[in-house]
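Entry 14. Ran structure prediction on the chain below.
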Amino acid sequence: MVRSIVSSIADRATRCPTWLERDGNRLVEVRGYSVAANLAFGILAATLILSLAAFILVSTP
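Output, structure tokens:
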């Protein structure tokens, strides 16, 4: 039970979206996240890290 939950979470965490893009006359499968998605994830991560750092700095005497 726990092993299946952990493996499903790990599978979702490592899954990468794929789509087709045209490269000249052929279609190429592209794996990964778009630039906008990477930027959004980076902003979210930076916000979380900075808010945690600010909380620690404010709460410690």
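The first strand starts at residue 18 and ends at 23. Will compare against last week's run tomorrow.
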